[in-house]
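Suppose you are handed only these lines of text.
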Amino acid sequence: MADGASPLWGGRLAGGLDPRVLVFSESLSVDARLLAHDVRASIAHVRMLGRQGIIPPGDADAIIGALGDVVLDAGATDEDVHSLIERQLVARLGEVGKRVHAGRSRNDQVATAFRLWCRDACDDVAAAITGLETTLVARARADGDALLPGYTHVQRAQPITLGHHLAAHCWALERDVTRVAAARVAADISPLGAGALAGSSLPLDPISVAAELGFAATFVNSVDAVADRDFAIDLSYAATLSMVHLSRMAEELVLWTSQEFGFAELPDSVAQGSSMMPQKKNPQIAEHVRGRSAVSIGRLTALLGVVKGLPLAYNSDMQEDKEIVFALVDTVVGCSTILAIAYSGLRFDTDRMSAAAGDGLVVATDVAEALVRAGMPFREAHEQVARRIAAGERFLSPTAAEAVAARVGAGSPARFREQLAALDERILSRR
Ligand code: ARG
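From them, the structure of the protein bound to arginine can be written out as follows.
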């Protein structure tokens, strides 16, 4: 191996490892991303080893110092990031470096680093989603009074305001943030001290290590601690469902920016052209979001599949977990960010929207409800209005604006300002 790296388990197996096996099995190319988190957890572990008298305090100090200098060296061919860290400690400190792994296995080590990473990722995902919401709320506030038809079955249904429509996306994103927060709680338990699966005969102090790492709690069952990937699945599900929401928004952007709808136009800075057709202005970023949402669903399914057949406790299948979760998190952060950019520059054609809302048909339900208020049974009113439409009538009254203004009750388009205030409050509480 380059850098003289040899596997941590070299003592057990005779002769060298076939280099093709290392290439096949390595995870450093993926889990290098855990370096800072693993170093942090290793520092807490070593500090505890020193405190507990498991290693001499001077050695603990030396290892902690050297951990601060660990870097991802170019061309490293270690089996994984954990092996890289230990190799560098031994290269720097000799025998002293070899004390780092007392009472620890890569099984509890990787679970700890990955939980720390997921905790940070939850914060990043929540921030990215909140950023998109902030943009949507700003657009809803600025352009929110414009009228447009709300749709069911992609057929004009009833008039609403643009603000009410944009805010609807925010409520889905609010639920995403709630799910991400729950995933953070799931990740916030320290497995360090569980060892390979059975803990250790050394007098470890997992509770103090957990506290130093800012975990809310310490594992209760050492076998579960190293076998559990629910926290990763929770985050993956939260990220994937968020991608589903972003995909619905993306699909709407594709529809609204089409010539057929003409409700919105992307700023030139985020639209892409055709190599052949000079007139084209394509909503490709929205299509990428829609496509990546599909891939995200596949990744979530893949992770569930990785875990489902595993006997307790750790199995190497679980090494696949990080690539999946890293990609899901990168995707949802990237897509939220790009949609925020798209929405902040989006030009709404409010004339086209209100013309569509003013077609004299979108208010049909409101005409029927006026008859109900005058005492007619609803089914009769429905039939009468339907007959008049079939006969060619188009309704001038109520107008779309009058129809929206007549809506009553919390959550109605007419109570839009209250809704904005509720969203503002939630968003600001996370700042
Ligand atoms: N690279 C491994 C992973 O990501 C670390 C744990 C390895 N443990 C083991 N016993 N081989 O899961």
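What can we learn from it? The chain has a mean pLDDT of 96. Residues 27, 31, 80, 106-107, 110, 314, 316, 318-319 surround arginine (CB under 6 Å).
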